[in-house]
Each structure stands twice: as structure tokens, then as C-alpha cells.
């Protein structure tokens, strides 16, 4: 594969929440797609969901071509070897299990063309380790989409230790062709760019719940009044407290033990309070909506505190060389979290002393050293680094 013009056919392995969305956006943008799964019924269900989504887009006048034309570009199979045999790019979206991913890539890389590119949509696993299962690790990379794929613009492209420049460049052009926004992730580190920047705020939410002095609705209510579509505790419930805790456990193992999920969240899991999907989590849920009680606002934790935590982590991501520059970090957060702007842009008008005070206060009050301000926050140089 020399360049993007050689890419005509894409195979997507796994047709679940992410896979069917990836298949859809590729087909919508002119690629021939083969969707692969282990059971015919999973594939039939995936096609049904793609059709529903395309019908919706067509009804809003947002679909180029007809629903049938797009569906005509997607074929399905339960035969992995056959499905990847003529693909130029193969994107894996099977469940988050290292051995499963390695097995899938061992099979796929031995059955595909010798110059095909292979990519994984993993959120948390090491690209370099998955690459040990493929025959040519230089043709292998991370291609991390965000949920729901049809709506979220960002795709993080992650280098494994042996990934070639050409592989990333082709995936970069492919991402643009499917109307998404590519950001390169130069180092295969936990959380890549966007999830990593959210990580310390996840730990903070857990600590606030454990302390029990501030009601989550006091923070969420204020943010909703400011126009935030989904506030932080509400988001945790929406994602699922099991997934939320699992992510914290993962960061506790890979970044710092301070990320361990706290007693409150673990207690929720024990009681089966998983958030939206179980009807109760941090909040009660009804008809897909959190019931956030009316509470007086609090000045103890404000949106400025949460923003300070984000920009502090963004500085670490920049210094660790995970992103090519601060613009990539800001773009990643903007398009991967549907945020108004990225952390560096948002914090540019805030006094360094204010951010420093917020971070010192949080680190002390919640005994979270991971929130201590970086030197570049204290001296204000975060406003100019990398620019
Ligand atoms: N769901 C999210 O919000 C999200 C966001 C970003 C990345 N991811 C990552 O995307 C990947 C897939 O997640 P998901 O939420 O779509 O999972 P999912 O469980 O919804 O779908 C996985 C699909 O893979 C299929 N599968 C299992 N073994 C297979 C095999 N050997 N060959 C072919 N298909 C197989 C399953 O039958 C299922 O249809 C994971 O690595 C996850 O971490 C998920």
C-alpha cells in the first residue's frame, strides 16, 4: 500500500457498538466494506442498525446517495480469513481482551494481502503488545474511534513501537476521507491523549463521592445551568459505573495507584447500581434521563476546578511527548469529548495563580497527589509551551 489512493476495500472485524458504526462511515464515504463477526445474527443486527441510522440521515437530508447505495457497499461474513483476504485496510473492533485481539490479528495478518494495513480500535490496550501477533508490525497501528462513531469526529492514530510512518500517513488520509478528524498519538501510553486528559477528573469524582460532603447534584446542577449537555457525575452513570471503575482500575495499574476507585463506587457495583443501564447509579434514571435533584450550587468545586485538572494533565501529556503539540491536544479534546474548546485554549485567559490554587486545594483536600500543579501551570508557561 503506497498511499491512500490504493485503499478501496476495508474489512471491519467485530460488528458491535463500534464496528457497525465504523463500517457505516466507511461505506458512506465510498469505500467497499466487509463486516466480520462470529455469528450471522450479530451481523444481521448490525446491518439493521446501520440501516436505521442511514434512514434517519436520509430523512434529515444528510445522506449523500441513497440508503440502498450505501448498504450495497457493505457485505457481511462470519469467515474472518475470507473477509480480510482482499481488504486494503483491516480495522478490528472485537471486545477488549488481549488474547482475543492477538488471536484475531494472528489470523487476519496471515490471511490478508502482504501490504494490507491492520488497525485496532482498542481503548486501553498496548498497541505494541497487540502488534506482536501480526506478521508485519510496521503495518499495524491503533485507530481509536469515539462512541457513537457516526457522530463523534475524532480518531486517534496511535504509533506502536514498530509502526511505520507510511502506515500512520495512510490511516491519517483515510480518517479525513471518512469525514473524521485525525490526531496522531506519538506514544502508546494509557488513555492515549483524550481519555488520559479525563483520567484525573475521574479520580476526583470518585474522591468527592467518598468524602460525601458535596452532593453530586450541586456540581452537576450548576454545570447544566451553564449549558453543559451532560455533567460529570451524570456522564459516569451514563457510561456505566462498572465501566467507570474498570477504567480507574486500569489507570491505577498503569499510571498511579492513586487512581483506584473509591468505596462509594465499589459499593454501587456491589449493589448492582450501575447507572443508566440498571435504572440507578449515582442518580435514579427514568426514560433514559438522570433525575438530578434541585440543590443549592456549591462554590467548593466549580467548573474552574475541573478545568484546572484537565489543563494540568494536558501539560503532562505534552511533556511526555504523547501528542505532537498543544494544538493536537486541544483538537483531540474538542472533537473527542464534544467540548467547546480544548484545555489549553480554555485556560489561556485564566491567571496561573488561580489554576495553581485550585489544584493545590484539590490535591490537599482529597489527598490526590496526581492533582498537584505542574511547574508550567505555576509559572504560567503552559500558555506558551509548544507555541
Ligand atoms: N464502546 C465504546 O464506547 C468504545 C469506544 C472506543 C473504543 N472501544 C473499543 O472498541 C472495541 C469494541 O468495543 P464495542 O463496544 O464495539 O464492543 P461490542 O461488545 O459492542 O462488540 C464487539 C463485537 O465483536 C464481536 N466478536 C467477538 N469475537 C470476535 C471474533 N473472534 N471475530 C469477529 N468478531 C468478534 C462480538 O460478537 C461483538 O459483535 C473494544 O476494543 C473497545 O475497547 C469501545
Keywords summarizing the entry:
binds nicotinamide-adenine-dinucleotide; 387 residues; 47% helix; two-stranded antiparallel sheet; alpha/beta; N-(1-d-carboxylethyl)-l-norvaline Dehydrogenase, domain 2
Structure description:
This protein is of the alpha/beta class and 387 residues long. The chain has two domains: 4-185, NAD(P)-binding Rossmann-like Domain (Rossmann fold), CATH 3.40.50.720; 193-387, N-(1-d-carboxylethyl)-l-norvaline Dehydrogenase, domain 2 (Orthogonal Bundle), CATH 1.10.1040. Helices cover 47% and strands 11% of the residues. The chain is built from 17 helices and ten strands. It has an eight-stranded mixed β-sheet, with helices on both faces. Strands 9-10 form a two-stranded antiparallel sheet. It is globular. The model has no long low-confidence stretch (mean pLDDT 97). The structure holds nicotinamide-adenine-dinucleotide. The site of nicotinamide-adenine-dinucleotide has 23 residues, from helix 5.
Number of strands: 10
**Which CATH architecture of the largest domain would you pick?**
Orthogonal Bundle
Q: What count of structural domains?
A: 2
Order of helices and strands: EHEHHEHEHEHEEHEHHHHHEEHHHHH
CATH class of the largest domain: Mainly Alpha
Q: What structural class should be given to the helix and strand makeup?
A: alpha/beta
The shape, in one word, is globular
Mean pLDDT: 97
Low-confidence stretches: none
Q: What fraction of residues sit in β-strands?
A: 5-15%
Q: How would a crystallographer describe the biggest sheet?
A: 8 strands, mixed
Number of helices: 17
Amino acid at each position: 500500500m503506497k498511499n491512500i489512493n490504493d485503499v478501496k476495500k476495508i474489512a471491519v472485524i467485530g460488528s458491535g457498538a463500534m464496528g457497525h458504526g465504523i463500517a457505516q462511515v466507511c461505506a458512506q464515504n465510498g469505500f467497499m466494506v466487509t463486516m466480520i463477526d462470529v455469528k450471522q445474527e450479530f451481523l444481521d443486527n448490525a446491518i439493521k442498525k446501520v440501516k436505521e441510522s442511514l434512514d434517519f440521515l436520509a430523512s434529515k437530508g444528510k445522506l449523500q446517495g441513497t440508503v440502498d447505495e450505501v448498504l450495497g457497499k457493505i457485505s457481511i461474513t462470519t469467515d474472518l480469513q475470507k473477509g480480510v483476504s482482499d481488504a486494503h485496510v483491516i480495522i478490528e473492533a472485537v471486545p477488549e481482551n488481549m488474547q482475543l485481539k492477538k488471536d484475531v490479528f494472528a489470523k487476519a495478518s496471515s490471511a490478508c494481502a502482504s501490504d494490507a494495513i491492520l488497525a485496532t480500535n482498542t481503548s486501553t490496550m498496548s498497541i505494541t503488545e497487540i502488534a506482536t501477533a501480526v506478521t508485519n508490525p510496521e503495518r499495524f497501528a491503533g485507530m481509536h474511534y469515539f462512541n457513537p462513531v457516526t457522530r463523534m469526529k475524532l480518531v486517534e492514530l496511535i504509533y506502536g513501537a514498530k509502526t511505520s510512518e507510511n502506515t500512520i500517513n495512510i490511516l491519517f488520509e483515510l480518517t479525513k476521507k471518512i469525514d473524521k478528524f485525525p490526531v496522531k498519538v506519538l506514544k502508546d501510553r494509557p488513555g492515549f491523549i483524550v481519555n488520559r486528559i479525563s483520567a484525573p477528573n475521574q479520580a476526583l469524582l470518585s474522591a468527592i463521592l467518598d468524602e460525601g460532603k458535596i452532593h453530586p447534584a450541586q456540581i452537576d446542577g450548576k454545570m447544566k445551568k451553564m449549558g453543559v449537555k451532560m455533567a460529570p457525575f451524570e456522564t459516569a452513570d451514563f457510561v456505566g459505573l462498572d465501566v467507570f471503575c474498570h477504567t480507574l482500575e486500569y489507570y491505577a495499574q498503569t499510571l498511579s495507584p492513586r487512581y483506584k476507585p473509591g468505596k462509594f463506587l465499589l459499593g454501587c457495583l456491589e449493589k448492582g447500581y450501575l447507572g443508566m443501564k440498571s435504572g440507578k447509579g449515582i442518580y435514579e434514571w427514568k426514560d433514559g434521563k438522570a433525575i438530578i435533584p434541585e440543590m443549592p450550587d456549591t462554590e467548593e468545586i466549580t467548573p474552574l476546578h475541573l478545568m484546572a485538572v484537565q489543563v494540568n494533565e494536558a501539560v503532562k501529556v505534552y511533556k511526555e511527548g504523547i501528542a505532537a503539540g498543544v494544538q493536537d491536544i486541544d483538537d483531540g479534546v474538542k472533537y473527542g469529548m464534544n467540548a467547546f474548546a480544548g484545555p489549553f485554549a480554555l485556560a489561556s485567559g485564566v491567571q496561573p495563580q488561580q489554576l495553581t490554587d485550585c489544584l493545590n486545594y484539590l490535591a490537599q483536600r482529597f489527598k490526590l497527589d496526581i492533582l498537584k500543579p505542574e511547574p508550567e501551570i505555576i509559572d504560567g508557561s503552559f500558555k506558551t509551551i509548544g507555541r
